[in-house]
């Protein structure tokens, strides 16, 4: 059985975690399968949006704990698991495609990290999010990296120190997810959102995503300088030219294919 599934539809790629028997835990095999798929789509301009979802009732329960306990005597193997997982999370940010997490059930520990590492997230009303490692003596130090950058220090620290699960409504209020919908509408909402984004220029989406993350940690004045120069570069691109003329001519733009 494939541990991740891949489907393409209307310029949207759908990556499905396919280990429901382990609640879609991020074993090293799963991490590597995700990374391999991300590497394949990195330079594909026909895939403009990526959705990550889980098969079964749970989005992702985090690392495979049995795999971690088996690896305890082998420091090198433990390091490999956490470093490869971190690299996979970073790749999500480095992809030119916007990445949407579609969350059902629970997203805990590295599963919560996966949601935070995506660019956008939609969850069903019954979803729960937690970094509960403190409860088993294993602090969620790698999940905290994207989490604190998304929801802020106080809220992240509370989640990390208490291990308490927050509701979908709280996650939306915190900024961890963008939208919350009934479970019956989750797939439809995600597909409509992904299709909406996929209508835009793939170059512009990727350019904007890189610019967004590049300016985030800059001081405000430096961020404005970077953003202004980015506007210059973007304005010179053929898709910007096409988009502006299409707007002025009251027609739909036709984005150029890239080599």
Question: Would you kindly provide a written description of the structure presented here, covering whatever features stand out?
Answer:
- The chain has 259 residues and is α/β, with parallel strands linked by helices.
- The protein folds into two domains: 4-198, Alpha-Beta Complex (2-enoyl-CoA Hydratase, Chain A, domain 1), CATH 3.90.226.10; 202-248.
- Helices cover 50% and strands 15% of the residues.
- It is built from eleven helices and nine strands.
- It has helices spanning 28-41, 65-71, 75-94, 110-117, 144-151, 153-162, 168-174, 186-198, 202-216, 220-235, 238-248, and strands spanning 4-9, 12-17, 49-54, 99-103, 106-108, 120-124, 128-130, 166-167, 179-181.
- The strands form two sheets. It has a six-stranded mixed sheet with strand order 1-2-3-4-6-9, sandwiched between helices. A three-stranded mixed sheet has the order 5-7-8.
- A hairpin with a 2-residue loop joins β1 and β2.
- It is globular, with a radius of gyration of 19 Å.
């Amino acid at each position: 059985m494939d541990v991740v599934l891949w489907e393409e539809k209307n310029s949207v790629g759908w990556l499905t975690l396919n280990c429901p028997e382990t609640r879609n835990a991020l074993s090293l095999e799963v991490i590597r399968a995700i990374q391999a798929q991300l590497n394949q789509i990195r330079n594909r301009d026909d895939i403009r949006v990526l959705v990550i979802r889980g098969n079964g009732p749970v989005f992702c329960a985090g690392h495979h704990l049995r795999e971690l306990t088996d690896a305890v005597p082998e420091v090198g193997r433990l390091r490999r698991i956490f470093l490869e997982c971190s690299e996979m999370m970073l790749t999500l940010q480095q992809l030119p495609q916007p990445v949407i997490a579609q969350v059902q059930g629970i997203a805990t520990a590295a599963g919560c990290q996966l949601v935070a590492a995506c660019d956008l997230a939609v969850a069903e009303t019954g979803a729960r999010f937690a970094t509960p490692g403190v409860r088993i003596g294993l602090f969620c130090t790698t999940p905290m990296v994207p989490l604190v950058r998304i929801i802020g220090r106080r809220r992240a620290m509370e989640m990390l120190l208490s291990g308490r699960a927050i509701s979908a409504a709280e996650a939306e209020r915190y900024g961890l997810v963008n939208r919350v919908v009934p479970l019956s509408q989750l797939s439809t909402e995600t597909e409509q959102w992904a299709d909406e984004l996929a209508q835009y220029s793939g170059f512009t989406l990727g350019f904007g995503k890189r610019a967004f993350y590049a300016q985030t940690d800059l001081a405000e004045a430096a961020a404005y300088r970077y953003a202004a120069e980015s506007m210059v570069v973007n304005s010179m691109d053929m898709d910007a030219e096409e988009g502006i003329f299409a707007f002025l001519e009251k027609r739909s733009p036709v984005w150029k294919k890239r080599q």
